[in-house]
Specification:
Length: 619
């Protein structure tokens, strides 16, 4: 008898194990079996009632068993739809909450694929899974981008970590992941794992590890513990998590792809900015045109050279943006496939003359196809002026040596001739017809002497005393010397002197010679009268003197020659051509600059600049 009683314990133990560990989801099986039993009983009752009713109806109209057979066939066709309708209503009654959260969670999983930001997406997954499954311990492990094939903790909830983790049991290549979730009934008593993994499982205290797979590759793992009531998850719950894990894998893959594309876009933008900064930092104008001649790029230097903004230039024809003569020169070299250049092209743009060197390079794609042209504009205006000044200085230096020798050689016989002619003139009686000839000879000897003295002054450098000079005082003294000639020539002199000008270092006598030459040249340029304006200013550590007249001006073809020795635009016998050359040398001797601007028929302006003396700093 007792042996029979022991047999009773066997089903009791199985029942306890099933309920305690939910080994076969007995509660779900029970509810589902009850639903199917109720549905079958209901459908059977309706079926037999329907068969009887239809048999009576068709039996009255037909003879024999044919009516009953027809009723059975009709009832059989109606059974399946009716059973499914009953089943759906019972499922809704028993699984109302489960069906709602399952549908909501799946819909949420579908929306994950639209999220490209990883951190917000992982946070949303953890919050929604925790609320739906009533789980308070969750973790998401991602494949380490630095160490492919290894997992690292990306996000967690309710998990406390006190030491480094050994996540080798979550390797993406683990065979168990190919079959589904990895389950540990008791993380503290896990078998077939190393001690470090067991300690990690004990820290995590998670029972389910669900792989997130995409294209046969595990990209993440969802870790879940028991519910807040201490129960294991049902098979439906695990199946639901596995479904969500698929959406998480897609979302993670999209996020990684988006992050990679974003990083590449940032890098491309950085390289683009870096390249543009290089082009913008160049001291040459850079532009690119397509095969039709439309501008594709236009840097800041081009804006400065031609006064056209980038916004206005891009998309327009190059010929409409630059001077016509330059556009014609560039167009004439358009079909050449080698690098070509335009050397020292002078263009007049917005009232100023520019000297440009232009390089034209074919613009080709990676495939070698020609897609346009690249043009470099180098403004060499200042460089050309410096070269001219250096050439002028060399000329003056060479000429100075020659002038000194010539002056000494000529001065001695000239002095003898002058003395003899003057003695001869004194010995001739009054009214002698040769007296006029003698006077002409004396006059020409004085003129020759003046030329020789100019040559000597031209050849002398650095011999005068150097002191601090008040430029206003020197200019005023020089103007007083030419006051009478200016008055007789009906020239009005306008003074605009700057107050408290700094002093300059140099020779007052030599600077007076410079200003005297400039004033006399201005007088000669206004034979019918006019106005001479003299202006002095201080600017950026320099003292500037500007001398402007309203005379005839200087022709454009002569403007670059006026400082050449013996070059003059005056009538024959009225100038030696050394005045401006000597003045140029004196100004350079004083570390100064001289520039000239002239408009034929309107006048000429000479701009002279000297470095100011710096005041000593007293500490």
């Amino acid at each position: 008898q007792f042996s029979v009683l022991s047999l009773v314990l066997i089903p009791l133990c199985f029942g306890y194990a099933i309920i305690r560990y939910r080994l076969m989801d007995v509660d779900i099986i029970f509810k589902r079996g009850l639903a199917y039993t109720a549905a079958t009983a209901g459908v059977a009752t309706v079926y037999f009632s329907l068969v009887a009713l239809l048999a009576d109806i068709f039996h009255a109209q037909t003879s024999g068993p044919a009516g009953g057979m027809i009723a059975i066939v009709i009832a059989a066709f109606m059974f399946q739809p009716f059973r499914e309708w009953i089943q759906a209503r019972l499922d809704r009654f028993f699984y109302r909450d489960r069906l709602d959260y399952r549908r909501t969670l799946i819909e949420f999983g579908r929306t994950l694929t639209n999220e490209v930001r990883m951190e917000p997406m992982l946070g949303s997954v953890m919050d929604r899974v925790s609320q739906t499954l009533l789980v308070d311990r969750l973790a998401i492990f991602r494949e380490d981008p630095v160490h492919p094939g290894q997992m690292r903790l990306a996000r967690s909830m309710g998990v406390r970590l006190s030491e480094p983790m050994d996540l080798s049991f979550l390797e993406p290549a683990r065979p168990e992941f190919a079959r589904g979730a990895l389950f540990f009934e008791s993380p503290r008593a896990a078998r077939d794992v190393s001690d470090s993994v067991r300690r990690t499982l004990e820290q995590l205290d998670l029972n389910y590890f669900v792989p997130c797979r995409i294209r046969e590759r595990t990209v993440a793992v969802l870790g879940l513990g028991k519910t807040v009531d201490g129960d294991f998850l049902s098979s439906d719950d695990v199946e639901l998590v596995e479904t969500i894990a698929g959406y998480v894998a897609i979302a993670l893959d999209n996020s990684q792809l988006y992050t990679s594309l974003e990083q590449k876009a940032v890098e491309i933008a950085r390289l683009k900015d870096f390249s543009e900064n290089i082009v913008e930092s160049l001291n040459v104008g850079v532009l690119a045109v397509d095969l039709d001649g439309a501008v594709e790029s236009w840097n800041t230097r081009m804006e400065q050279l031609f006064g056209v903004t980038r916004e206005h230039a891009v998309g327009h024809e190059l010929s409409s943006l630059i001077p016509a003569e330059l556009a014609h020169e560039i167009a004439s070299r358009g079909d050449q496939e080698l690098i070509t250049g335009i050397y020292k092209q002078r263009v007049l743009h917005q009232g100023k003359t520019l000297t440009l060197n232009v390089s034209i390079t074919p613009l080709v794609s990676k495939s070698g196809e020609r897609i346009g042209r690249l043009l470099l504009f180098d403004d060499v205006t200042q460089r050309e002026r410096m070269e001219e000044q250096m050439t002028q200085t060399e000329k003056l230096t060479s000429l100075g040596l020659l002038a000194a020798g010539v002056a000494h050689e000529v001065n001695t016989p000239l002095a003898v001739i002058s003395n003899y002619i003057q003695m001869l003139a004194k010995q001739m009686p009054e009214g002698d017809p040769k007296q006029a000839i003698i006077e002409k000879i004396v006059k020409q000897t004085f003129r020759a002497s003046e030329i020789v003295n100019n040559l000597l002054n031209f050849s002398r450098t650095g011999a005068a005393e150097v002191v601090d000079i008040d430029v206003n005082h020197v200019v005023e003294e020089t103007l007083s010397l030419v006051a009478h000639p200016m008055k007789t020539s009906q020239i009005q002199v306008v003074r605009q002197f700057g107050e408290t000008l700094p002093r300059v270092r140099g020779s007052a006598n030599k600077l007076q010679q410079v200003f005297l030459n400039l004033f006399l040249n201005a007088r000669d340029a206004m034979p019918g009268g006019g106005m001479l304006e003299v202006r002095t200013t201080a600017h950026n550590g320099s003292v500037e003197v500007e001398i402007m007249d309203t005379g005839a001006g200087i022709a454009r073809e002569h403007i670059h020659k006026i400082f050449d020795p013996f070059f003059t635009t005056k009538a024959s016998g009225r100038g030696t051509g050394l005045g401006l050359s000597v003045s140029y040398g004196i100004i350079k001797e004083h570390s100064g600059k001289i520039d000239v601007r002239s408009t034929p028929g309107k006048g000429t302006s000479f701009h002279v600049e000297f470095p100011a003396v710096r005041k000593p700093l007293h500490v």
